[in-house]
Structure formats: C-alpha cells, structure tokens
Design brief:
Elements: E1 2-7, H1 12-21, H2 23-26, E2 30-33, H3 35-45, E3 49-51, H4 59-68, E4 74-78, H5 86-102, E5 106-107, H6 110-122
Parallel strand pairs: 1-2, 1-4, 2-3, 4-5
Helix pairs in contact: 1-3, 4-5
C-alpha cells in the first residue's frame, strides 16, 4: 500500500509521534511525504520514505498527481484548524478534492488516521490493491 504524509507546520510533531507509534505497521508499506515532513519522520523513526518536493516547491502537487493516477492508497494530512495561511488551506482543499475524485481514503486528524492504520492492519483497505493490478492483454 502507498501512503502519503502531509502535515501543517504545527502538526508535524504529532505526525512524527503517530509514525513512531505505528512504525511496525507503516514499515510494511511504501511511504511518501513532502520534504520537511518526510525528513522529520525518517530521522525520528528510521522508516524509509520517498521524499518529494517541499510544500512550497510543489510537493502537494506531486502527491495530488500520484493520487490522480491511483498511485496513492491512503493520505494522512494532519491539518491545523487554526491556520490562517490561505496557501496551505487551498492546497489542503485540493488534496481532499483529489482524494474524493479517486476514492482515496484521507485522514485529516489523529483519530481518523488511527482508524485507517488499524484498518490497514486488519486488511480493510486491501481493496485498494486491486487498483494497482495491470490488465492482461
């Protein structure tokens, strides 16, 4: 399963704590993140992460493109509801929109992220794997 991580600045530490707590589950999957978030997760957990561009350089757009091509199976986007950054909010809305279009599960807070991770462990999201199988010709 391909999992993408994004986090507003004030939620990056929470994302690291989340990844530390669920390291044993996450280690079995392909992980992607924007540069700063990915570096923090990798440095603190040792998890291998494919790091994309930073948020300001287009990392959100890279993740959105992967979502559009069904290359991402789950998005964990820890948002700061108190943020006044219009650029961050626009990117967040765009990512949610891409997930909705492609039927990709997305968690925007710790509670929903924990539900998805426990679901992954139980196999509840295995249906996403069918989207990666190549048609036979």
């Amino acid at each position: 399963m391909n999992i993408a991580f994004l986090a507003h600045d004030k939620k990056k530490e929470l994302m690291v704590q989340f990844c530390t707590a669920y390291k044993s589950i996450l280690s079995k999957h392909n992980l992607f993140a924007t540069a700063t978030t990915g570096r923090l997760i990798a440095d603190n957990t040792g998890l291998p992460i494919t790091m994309l561009l930073s948020h300001k350089q287009g990392g959100h757009q890279q993740i959105n493109a992967r979502i559009a091509y069904n290359e991402i199976d789950l998005v964990l986007l820890f948002t700061d509801p108190n943020s006044n950054d219009v650029y961050d909010d626009a990117n967040m809305i765009e990512t949610i929109r891409h997930c909705d279009k492609q039927n990709v599960p997305i968690a925007t807070n710790l509670a929903s992220a924990e539900m998805f991770i426990m679901g992954i462990q139980r196999g509840d999201l295995d249906w996403r794997e069918m989207l990666h199988t190549k048609p036979r010709y």
